[in-house]
Amino acid sequence: MTKEQYVLLYEKYTLGICTEEEKKLFEQYNDEFSIDNAPWDENKLGDEKQVSERMYKRFYDEIHPRHQLSWFNRHKFSAAAAILIMLGIGVYLSINPSQKTNSAPTDVAVQKKSIPPGGKKAVLTLQDGSQIILDNSQNGIVANQANTVITKTREGQVIYNSSQSSFVDPKSVPYNSISTPRGGEYQLLLPDNTKVWLNAESTIKFPAVFNGRERKIELSGEAYFEVAHNQKMPFRVVVEGTEIEVLGTHFNVNGYHDRADVNTTLLEGSVKLKNSKKEAMLKPGQSGISSATGGMKVKNVDVEDAVAWKNGYFVFQDEDIYSIMAKVARWYDVEVEFRGNMKDKGFFGKVNRYDNISELLKNMELTREVQFKIEGRRVIVMAK
User: Fold this and answer.
1) pLDDT at res. 40
2) Which end of the chain has a smaller Cβ tally under 10 Å, C or N?
């Protein structure tokens, strides 16, 4: 297939006007793609630069969460070149005649070896120090704390159902915690009906019943909250020296120990951030970044990217390989080794995080910036 034929087929495919035969042909080349090095025909295709930019824009639009998978590297784009990696395995197309257009072969070791994704795994620790491994325990009632019945559902959620008829002295309320390991995630319904999604390698500490003037919890790692509204009892999250205060709202907090800051993204409602030196109010569609040194920065963001993990995806927007692999390590419970210099390489992409690790690594290799090797539960990342 020539470049011209592919571009015309691509245009028809994205417009939804392909015949069944053309659709099969396009998807066949989508999996195993090669085109010849024929010159560009402006009489048939128009201005090469304009076509390239139009294809780039369409592809960029497709990397947002409504699509399952796409990858590209920002260094691969120019006025007359585009990378199109779509719909699963991916496509690499360069419109620059001087550049090779054959797909980069993926590492054989990555193709043959696979590491499964994480799943519903967590440990519930009660006030007395006793622990319940939730992924191994039976469904139903698992414990009672301060007039609160703790139940595990078959969907992988822990529910705290407290009795509102009896008062518990705030000074005597027992505290519980739920911790997810590397390769784990879990859902929690707090005593006030606040919903919490806990990401891998994270811990939330909370009272078995909320009494007094506030609902205060502690977080280490990452969690998404849908807070039940209670104007008389503000909800506060303390994470790595930053306090987040809300009345009733939806927001995501990323405060892993290996980060230099705490990133709070607001989807609905309003929250107030406060650290040792500054405070800020967030509006929906904003992220607040609080640093350990007391700095505070607020910016507008795509909120769907922040909660992609909760919805079953990895989404990367101009993200470096070191940050990406930190997320991969936590979710797949692997060790990562880097070989070579891979700084200043920003990746864009979206991947189903319930796929095996080999799917993620193979698609990243298609950017021709990195190569991977799997040895047991160690992933070796090599610069190309």
Assistant:
1) 55
2) C
